[in-house]
């Protein structure tokens, strides 16, 4: 199988988002654009109608380096495992999760003065995956062994060790928890209900009538593949 065919095997939402992130970073590295044209700025959005900033601030993870590669690997792995796991056959619902999470982060980001929200978005994806796979055992850099629900907090601690602000991580965890609670917890509570309903227009645009029966998804029970995210299911 050629590299292009393998690329096309990546689920559509994961493929679109990771490609956009890589292309945005490449454009900045080649000095075709600058981060100043991408960052989140409510005043420029509202007064100068620079609405693209609502999207581009989620696509730039900084210059090419360890931080960029670290974020890209986690974004790709956990976005893909969500799309091929609990969102398999539910592309519209996955897109709606992106929109819901992005909206909440944009609102919160306004108050905490964050200019790039891509890392927070990655943490949100990791959080939702970790809560939906509570029995997966993780290994982080070969140093820590823990169960999946602790992964977002381990990543936050790693961010702290690198000298980064944990506000971004906390925002991702908070938004991820809001989504998980409204989608997975509240509907199953006595008197609860489903508040998050994917609009029919999104379903019409993204949901396909049937899937390829021969398609092999990335195994969700093996979230690693890399030394800092390796894991296996308990009892497996």
From TrEMBL:
Membrane-spanning residues: 54-76, 97-130, 150-182
Claim: Zinc is one of the keywords in the record: no
Protein keywords: Endoplasmic reticulum, Membrane, Transmembrane, Transmembrane helix
Membrane topology: Multi-pass membrane protein
InterPro entries the record matches: DER1, Rhomboid-like_sf
SUPFAM superfamilies with a match to the protein in the record: Rhomboid-like (SSF144091)
Protein name, UniProt field: Derlin
């Amino acid at each position: 199988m050629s590299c292009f065919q393998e690329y096309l095997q990546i689920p559509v939402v994961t493929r679109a988002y990771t490609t956009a992130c890589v292309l945005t970073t490449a454009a900045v590295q080649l000095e075709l654009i600058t981060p100043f044209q991408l960052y989140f700025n409510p005043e420029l959005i509202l007064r100068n109608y620079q609405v693209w900033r609502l999207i581009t601030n989620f696509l730039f993870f900084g210059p090419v380096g360890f931080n960029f590669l670290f974020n890209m690997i986690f974004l790709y792995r956990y976005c893909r495992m969500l799309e091929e796991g609990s969102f398999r056959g539910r592309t519209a619902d996955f897109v709606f999760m992106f929109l819901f999470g992005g909206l909440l982060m944009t609102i919160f980001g306004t108050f905490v003065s964050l200019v790039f929200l891509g890392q927070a978005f990655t943490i949100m994806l990791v959080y939702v995956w970790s809560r939906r796979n509570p029995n997966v055992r993780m290994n982080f850099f070969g140093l820590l062994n823990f169960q999946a629900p602790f992964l977002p907090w381990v990543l936050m601690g790693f961010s702290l060790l690198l000298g980064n602000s944990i506000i971004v991580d906390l925002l991702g965890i908070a938004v991820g928890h809001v989504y998980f609670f409204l989608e997975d917890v509240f509907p199953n509570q006595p008197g609860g209900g489903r508040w998050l309903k994917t609009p029919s227009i999104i379903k019409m645009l993204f949901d396909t009538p049937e899937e390829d029966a021969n398609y092999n998804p990335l195994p969700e029970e093996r979230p690693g593949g890399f030394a800092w995210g390796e894991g296996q299911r308990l009892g497996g």
